[in-house]
Amino acid sequence: MPVITSSGRLALIDTSDIEEYPLTRDDRLNSHFFMVWERRRWLNSDMRLKGRAECRALYFDLINIACDQSPVGTIPNDMEVLSKLLMISESELKTLCQLEYGPLHKWRPCRCGDEVRLMHPVVLDMLIEAVSRKEDNRAKMEAANTVKRVQRLRSTVAGLHTDLSKNDAAVKWMDEWLVKQAVGYRNTSWVEQAIMAWSDHRMDLQRVPRRGTM
Question: pTM for this structure?
Answer without folding.
Answer: 0.62
